[in-house]
């Protein structure tokens, strides 16, 4: 776990200010959705898949299955066919159907709010739960995806590869009001500049304060 030193906190403050200046403070997710359930399904689909690909699939998917009940009663083979262009579609189809059935049986068809309730749903881990909590309910949360984990480590905000530990480290040092937008900002930085395995450090607006910059 990272130590909350003055050097780290000074760097956090500068990084947050520069991220806000570069990308703004909009907290909108890149996954297209109209309500909590659509975002839940889209986030399940986005595991090991790009948001762009998910956004190509979901319009026809939600037209075919417009309600929680439609997903709960879906034929797994037909659902697999509808999402076959997305990776791991066999497991995702089963999880989506299971998730919809549990929403009907345990939550009156509504997407729950708490981390514990959300992670009780099939196919929903901490990352997906925190996407819902942050973007739907505006509960401050840290979403640790591959970009957030990689770049936070490069910035010296964590020394762990464990997403739960990374989440805890970031919650300890980041200002609470920055939690949700940090996720969005770092994802964009990771897709455009701080890539894996070859970051474009010469183009980065954080290079002068980044411990990983050579």
UniProtKB/TrEMBL annotation:
**Per its Swiss-Prot or TrEMBL entry, what cofactor is needed?**
[4Fe-4S] cluster
Residues that, per the record, bind [4Fe-4S] cluster: 194, 201, 204, 210
Q: How is the cofactor bound?
A: Binds 1 [4Fe-4S] cluster.
Its recorded reaction(s) are: 2'-deoxyribonucleotide-(2'-deoxyribose 5'-phosphate)-2'-deoxyribonucleotide-DNA = a 3'-end 2'-deoxyribonucleotide-(2,3-dehydro-2,3-deoxyribose 5'-phosphate)-DNA + a 5'-end 5'-phospho-2'-deoxyribonucleoside-DNA + H(+)
Q: Name one Pfam family in it.
A: HhH-GPD
List, in alphabetical order, the Gene Ontology terms for molecular function in this entry: 4 iron, 4 sulfur cluster binding; class I DNA-(apurinic or apyrimidinic site) endonuclease activity; DNA binding; DNA N-glycosylase activity; metal ion binding
Gene3D superfamilies from the xrefs? Helix-hairpin-Helix base-excision DNA repair enzymes (C-terminal), Hypothetical protein, domain 2
Keywords of this entry? 4Fe-4S, DNA damage, DNA repair, DNA-binding, Endonuclease, Glycosidase, Hydrolase, Iron, Iron-sulfur, Lyase, Metal-binding, Nuclease
According to its UniProt record, the EC number is 4.2.99.18
SMART domains this protein is in?
ENDO3c (SM00478), FES (SM00525)
Domain HhH-GPD span(s) in chain numbering: 45-192
An example GO biological process term is:
base-excision repair, AP site formation
| Broad class of enzyme this protein falls into | lyase
What does the UniProt record say this protein does? DNA repair enzyme that has both DNA N-glycosylase activity and AP-lyase activity. The DNA N-glycosylase activity releases various damaged pyrimidines from DNA by cleaving the N-glycosidic bond, leaving an AP (apurinic/apyrimidinic) site. The AP-lyase activity cleaves the phosphodiester bond 3' to the AP site by a beta-elimination, leaving a 3'-terminal unsaturated sugar and a product with a terminal 5'-phosphate.
Q: Which PANTHER family match?
A: A/G-SPECIFIC ADENINE GLYCOSYLASE/ENDONUCLEASE III (PTHR10359), ENDONUCLEASE III (PTHR10359:SF18)
HAMAP family in the record: Nth (MF_00942)
Name the family the entry cites: Belongs to the Nth/MutY family.
This chain's protein is named: Endonuclease III
Which species is this UniProt entry from? Answer: Butyrivibrio fibrisolvens
